[in-house]
């Protein structure tokens, strides 16, 4: 497991407030100390510390994340940022103590704890992901994503023959059915605007599948997935949309075999791939494309 508990030294065994103890022991600013407490990482004499002003005396322990790198493809790298090929099935960021591996294992091993993903991809989405190496570049890229200054393109394999070109301009919101899967989104006029453009690149009649170029002009959660599903073109391997709650839970909990999932959804994974990133940074143009071939992963050598 990537998380382990370590003891923090308190040489004089003096009473100190929790946030101050962390700041002095780890040489970190107050906001980072508060984050560790909020994330329930700090313990004193075996008891969870939940308040920043809580007085600590005795054995102080901290849960930390240990890197467990497996190797990752670096597509581009300079001093400020890097672009990686994220495999399908890998989280962009650890989501709790039961997360055995995430892309952060690779990022922190390569460039240290200051580096982080500048945006996120769904766990099952593969492809290009931008990594900010410094705090400064992290702030800059976050602002660029918020201003839509970074253009993203995806490739998807969908069921059936799609239209040659089509646009979807439908607002989205988190599902309000609390008996449903909590991460599932829905089309809703009360939600935030979501605009996507789609273009069929190829149709594979032997598989009844279309290779579709997807361009999101807004950045909503599951935007491309829901817009395609709503248009009648479900992405192959889709684990959320178009399935019953029980089926979704079986997939998310890993209770279906690969063969069962292929039979249910058409593919062993969500066939959505981050294909291209295009932006200007510090006066220079960057147009970075993925070298992975999504369609070959699905169709093999039959095309």
TrEMBL record:
It catalyses: a uridine in RNA = a pseudouridine in RNA. One of its GO terms (molecular function) is pseudouridine synthase activity. It comes from the Bacteria. Keywords: Isomerase, RNA-binding. Pfam families: PseudoU_synth_2. Residues 81-228 form the Pseudouridine synthase RsuA/RluA-like domain. CDD domains: PseudoU_synth_RluA_like. The keyword RNA-binding applies. One of its GO terms (biological process) is enzyme-directed rRNA pseudouridine synthesis. The keyword Isomerase applies. PANTHER family: MITOCHONDRIAL RNA PSEUDOURIDINE SYNTHASE, RIBOSOMAL LARGE SUBUNIT PSEUDOURIDINE SYNTHASE D. Belongs to the pseudouridine synthase RluA family. This is RNA pseudouridylate synthase. It comes from Campylobacter vulpis.
């Amino acid at each position: 497991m990537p998380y382990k508990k370590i003891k923090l030294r308190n040489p004089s065994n003096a009473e100190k407030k929790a946030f101050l103890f962390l700041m002095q022991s780890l040489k970190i600013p107050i906001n980072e100390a508060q984050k560790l407490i909020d994330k329930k990482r700090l313990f004193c004499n075996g008891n969870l510390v939940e308040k920043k002003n809580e007085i600590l005396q005795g054995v102080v322990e901290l849960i930390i994340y240990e890197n467990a790198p497996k190797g990752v493809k670096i597509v581009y790298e300079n001093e400020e940022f890097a672009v990686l090929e994220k495999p399908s099935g890998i989280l962009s960021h650890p989501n709790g103590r039961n997360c055995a591996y995430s892309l952060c294992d690779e990022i922190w091993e390569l460039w240290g704890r200051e580096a982080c993903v500048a945006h996120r991809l769904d766990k099952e989405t593969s492809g290009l992901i931008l990594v900010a190496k410094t705090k400064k570049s992290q702030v800059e890229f976050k602002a660029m994503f918020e201003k839509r200054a970074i253009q993203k393109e995806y490739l998807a394999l969908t069921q059936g023959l799609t239209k040659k070109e089509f646009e979807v301009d439908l607002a989205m919101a988190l599902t309000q059915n609390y008996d449903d899967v909590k991460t599932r989104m829905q089309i809703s006029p009360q939600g935030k605007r979501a605009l996507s453009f789609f273009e069929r690149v190829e149709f594979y009649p032997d598989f009844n599948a279309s290779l579709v170029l997807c361009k999101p002009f807004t950045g909503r959660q599951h935007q491309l997935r829901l817009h395609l599903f709503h248009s009648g073109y479900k992405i192959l391997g889709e684990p959320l949309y178009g399935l019953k709650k029980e089926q979704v839970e079986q997939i998310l909990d890993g209770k279906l075999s690969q063969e069962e999932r292929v039979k249910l959804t058409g593919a062993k994974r969500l066939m959505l791939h981050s294909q291209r990133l295009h932006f200007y940074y510090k006066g220079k143009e960057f147009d970075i494309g993925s070298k992975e071939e999504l369609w070959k992963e699905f169709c093999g050598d039959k095309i």
